# Entry
Amino acid sequence: HGHHAAFRVPAFRALGGYDTTFAAAEDVDFDHRLIAMKGRIIMAGPWAVHYLPRATPRTAFQQFLRNGKGRTRFWQKHRLLPAPRQALPILVGIGWPISLLLGLAFPFLALPGLAYLMILLALSACITRARPIMTLQVMLLALLTHTGFAAGVIGTFRRPHGRRRQRIAPT
# Structure
């Protein structure tokens, strides 16, 4: 979306700028604080910013893993729940691999995971209609972003930000 390409400096300073303890989603946190202080965000269509995916599948996955961790940290900081727009990728990102794994023992349990993959394939084909050779690339990007985001969210709950496991010394 890129709406932080321009903003009023006094508003930015009044809110203390970005929270530099965030590794990702610091813009989401800033937006939330700005809106809470009755600030406005104006999206300008002529200034559209286009997304360029990372160079490799691994780096795309890592980007969204970091984004999932950042979003979770944002929800925890502000005591919020994910919006449906974020909840759906979490559910499918967790659900499709579990579904396929369970399907190895009970084939009917693979159906939700297979349905998700077929929906991704169909949507990717619609998006790349003019360039069908890119269909699998777009599908892979969607799969990596959903799964990486979900893994980041789950990983954050597994070990909350800033906390390390303490070793208990033997007595």
Q: What stands out?
A: The radius of gyration is 19 Å. Helices lie at 9-14, 26-36, 57-78, 84-105, 111-127, 135-158. The first helix runs from residue 9 to 14.
